[in-house]
Fold each of these.
Amino acid sequence: MDCVFCKIIDGEIPSKIIYEDEDVIAFDDVDPQAPIHFLVIPKKHIKSLDELSESDSSLIGKIFLTIKMIAREKGIAENGYRVVHNIGEDGGQSVAHMHFHVLGGRSLQWPPG
Ligand code: AMP
């Protein structure tokens, strides 16, 4: 499958991996939009949450607990941070492998463009 994030999971494309277990991997975004900007993704190729099924419910829980753990480790939990999941064309999704952006380390504006 021609998926850049599957290639990161397989080690075919280098990345700055922050955390990895049998289900989930987290790595720095190559084009950071904040002092801290990493992505948390499932190893299973799922396009977006629009393609989730009941059997993925524990995987989603694990992704969010991973976000919490890394945010604390990186010291952004106290001041706060943002989790973003872009879905499809209008959502601004450019990589068709479900990923959660985690942005922190500065005050973020709202609303997004
Ligand atoms: P989205 O636009 O929500 O689909 O986000 C895709 C994100 O993946 C962007 O923030 C990109 O900078 C990031 N990205 C694309 N290729 C890589 C890569 N090889 N390593 C790390 N991040 C990447």
Amino acid sequence: MNFYITTPIYYTNDVPHIGHAYTTIACDILSRFNKLSNNDVFFLTGTDEHGQKVEKAANDAKINPKKFVDQLSVNFEKLVPDLGCNVNDFIRTTENRHILSAQALWNTLIKNDEIYLSNYEGWYSIRDEAFYQESELKKINNKYYTKNGSPVEWLKEESYFFRLSKWENNLINFYENNNEVISPKTRYNEVLSFIKGGLKDLSISRTTFKWGVPVPNDNKHVMYVWIDALCNYLTAIGYPDLQNEKFKKYWPAIHIVGKDILRFHAVYWPAFLMAANLEPPKKIYAHGWWTNEGEKISKSLGNVIDPYDIISEYGLDQFRYFLFSEVPFGNDGDFSKNAISKRVNADLSNNYGNLIQRISTFIVKNCNSKIKYSNNFNDKDMELVNNFENKFEDYLIYMNNYQIDKAIKSIIEILSQTNAYVDDQAPWSLKKTDTDRMEVVLFLVVNIIIKSTIMLFPVIPSSAKKVLSFFNLNIEKIKFDDFNNLFKKDLYVNNPEPIFPRIN
Ligand code: MSP
């Protein structure tokens, strides 16, 4: 199966924060999981560099917009590997390939009579880069704001419009026949009731500033930043060349987005695509928002979380693990120092790390680093084996359903059961009474440690790689399909280095 997964492209108006890190890591986890499942993965991220918001930030910094975005985009590009993420492409909307692609999409929409010229009069939020109806706003001291507190301004200008209203029924039909496309379910309901509430044609060009993709054949206008930005998902796989191998292989895509930008992805985007005779997205998954120690994260409150600070204090894999084990993917979550320490200590230090440490050191010390292959399992062993098989099945189902926290929980439960099994079987006592039985116990435990580590790899890639190296295994060569055959041989154990030290 082909699996094309995208993050939103990030505005280059500021430096990256935890929200950007969250979406990118989510996609990295899903991408690594799908590679282990033998799927052909293309993982895309990048930066959204046009529009009034970015232009305003450049003006405030007194730097020319192109220079400004060149400087800021680098931070996002560098963050990707610093988060332990492995992408196939990093796209910038100021790149030539993208400008050509956005203009090609525009021309197709013109050719299909999906665009007309008129005048826009109404509210606009530069912070959200979005148009609002007056009914969606609140008035404070004679000024209008969105529900989230973004200020809006009144626009009155010539504008090209996309015939969004025409696509209302097609969108409803599409979603009612494919009700798995938008997840979680509550988001699906929200989007559907929004569409059923009636769609108005959408203003898709601006004339009062210049920092955007020029509208073909009318250089008074630049494209509305969202039509430009959404098109990045096509650009990266070769659009407008529909015969491009990548395009044929990977479209349609899976979009992971924050709940705040669901409407753009689940209403406008599929309508643009259908209007351009292209397939709508395969999946749109909306995740929640993080708060910081209970407070909404905002620049004005000065509580924006810099991912680099968390990584240097707690470690990269600890950060990744916390973000995806603590909160169901789709829900809002609260970041707190207490919560990350507790979570990492309980799951990674006391459970996972401790199991590896005590078993590996025992084998190195007492068995000359070698464990003979064995399947001479008794009922107790078979109970653990069967538990593992069940949890592994659950894990696959959860991951395929984007329920990353539940998938992680299945692994943690296996590890707890395995720790209890070790206590119960006490290989240190068997060493004195029955070394054959000791070997069986150790073989089974190492086997489960290895499989659990492979299952954890998408979430904690560098630690998992390190753990596998204790057992002379290389993750690049492993797929879930190998689980049945991979370990039917003697195992060698190297002296383990400490992983996941306790956080105080
Ligand atoms: N440029 C648009 C996306 C265009 S996609 C064609 C954009 N950029 S953004 O930089 O403002 O936001 C990118 C992502 O960060 C969004 O998915 C948003 O939900 C996410 N987050 C921003 N703050 C967040 C939190 N506090 N918590 C979790 N995610 C949040 O929107």
